[in-house]
């Protein structure tokens, strides 16, 4: 058996088409606005920010990018965040991480108006998420849920095992999947570096979500026949002949796909969903500020 490939590229494309239509329909009432703030010249961060702005423009979202010198003070960055907190044209504020070491990331993220926190990282939104209240869901976990739901994967009553306990992916996706919601109602086990006999847990999984940041760590002998695998990992493992970064997920794709019923590839799996969910949150925020949601 060879697994069905769950394409994040195709799913993200479909959602973006939906968002493009929604933005066009909102145009006479509100134009969603997103600002991305980049401090320093980290190449990966520059690439991420450029992709976010390109996607926003393609959807008809008003997008602004502010690039600051790496020596920018914490106070100056806080003042900039406050400026956009009070800007009626902006409905989403994204400060690209990581920040230079002299800036307290938590202090900056906490300064963003929770109603403009389209990354879903503010403690207020995290709390709302845990309680199952309306909020901006963190983009990558939200993307995982969309992939499962739109691929027709039954999550209700399923044994879901999450490998990785980060605040960005592992903990929020585990919380969301146990809630009474679409792509939820699962029985969830969260594994991490101190888990004893991890194979015992991964072999029980009907749905296995891996976000550990270790290339090819999950092998075929660690999963059962028919498992659905969502691989969140993106690891650089060298360079291609054309000089591009060679990427691998946290799952040994070639071996595991022969046992899985469905699996996400890397690249082209969860990755494209993250930016798409950021755009979805921005449109949701604009609706809320306009009193339409």
Give a verbal description of the structure:
By secondary structure, the protein is α/β, with parallel strands linked by helices. The protein is built from ten helices and eleven strands. The chain has two domains: about 30-115, Leucine Dehydrogenase, chain A, domain 1 (Rossmann fold, 3-Layer(aba) Sandwich), CATH 3.40.50; about 140-270, NAD(P)-binding Rossmann-like Domain (Rossmann fold). It has helices at about 10-25, 45-60, 75-85, 105-110, 125-130, 140-150, 170-180, 200, 255, 270-290; strands spanning about 5, 35-40, 60-70, 90-95, 160-165, 185-190, 205-210, 230, 235-240, 245-250, 260-265. α2 (about 45-60) links the parallel β2 (about 35-40) and β3 (about 60-70). α1 runs parallel beside α10, α6 packs across α7 (about 170-180) and α6 packs across α10 (about 270-290). The radius of gyration is 19 Å and the shape is globular. The protein starts with a strand and ends with a helix.
Secondary structure: elements and pairs:
Blueprint: E1 4-5, H1 8-26, E2 33-39, H2 43-59, E3 62-68, H3 74-85, E4 92-95, H4 105-111, H5 123-131, H6 139-150, E5 159-163, H7 170-178, E6 187-191, H8 198-202, E7 207-210, E8 228-231, E9 235-239, E10 245-248, H9 253-256, E11 262-263, H10 271-289
Helix pairs in contact: 1-10, 2-10, 6-7, 6-10
């Amino acid at each position: 058996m060879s697994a069905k490939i769950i394409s994040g590229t195709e799913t993200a494309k479909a959602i973006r088409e939906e968002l493009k239509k929604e933005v066009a329909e909102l145009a006479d009432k509100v134009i969603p606005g997103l600002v991305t703030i980049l401090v320093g010249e980290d190449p990966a961060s520059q690439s991420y920010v450029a992709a976010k702005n390109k996607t926003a423009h393609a959807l008809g979202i008003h997008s602004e990018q502010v690039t600051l010198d790496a020596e920018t003070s914490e106070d100056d960055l806080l003042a900039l965040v406050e400026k956009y907190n009070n800007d009626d044209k902006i409905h989403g504020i994204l400060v690209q991480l990581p920040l230079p070491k002299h800036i307290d990331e938590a202090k900056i993220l906490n300064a963003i108006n929770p109603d403009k926190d389209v990354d879903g990282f503010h403690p207020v939104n995290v709390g709302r998420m845990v309680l199952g209240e309306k909020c901006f869901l963190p983009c990558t976990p939200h993307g995982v849920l969309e992939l499962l739901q739109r691929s027709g994967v039954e999550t209700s009553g399923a044994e879901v095992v999450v490998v990785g306990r980060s605040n960005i992916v592992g903990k929020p996706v585990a919380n969301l999947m146990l809630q009474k919601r679409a792509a939820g109602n699962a029985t969830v086990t969260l594994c991490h570096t101190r888990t004893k006999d991890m194979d015992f847990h991964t072999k029980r999984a009907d749905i296995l979500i891996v976000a550990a940041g270790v290339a090819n760590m999950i092998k075929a002998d660690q999963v059962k026949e028919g498992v659905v695998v969502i691989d969140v990992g993106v690891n650089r493992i060298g360079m291609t002949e054309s000089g591009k970064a060679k990427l691998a997920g946290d799952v040994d794709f070639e071996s595991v796909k022969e046992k899985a019923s469905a699996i996400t590839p890397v690249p082209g799996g969860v990755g494209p969903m993250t930016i798409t969910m950021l755009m979805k949150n921005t449109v949701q925020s604009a609706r809320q500020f306009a009193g339409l949601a």
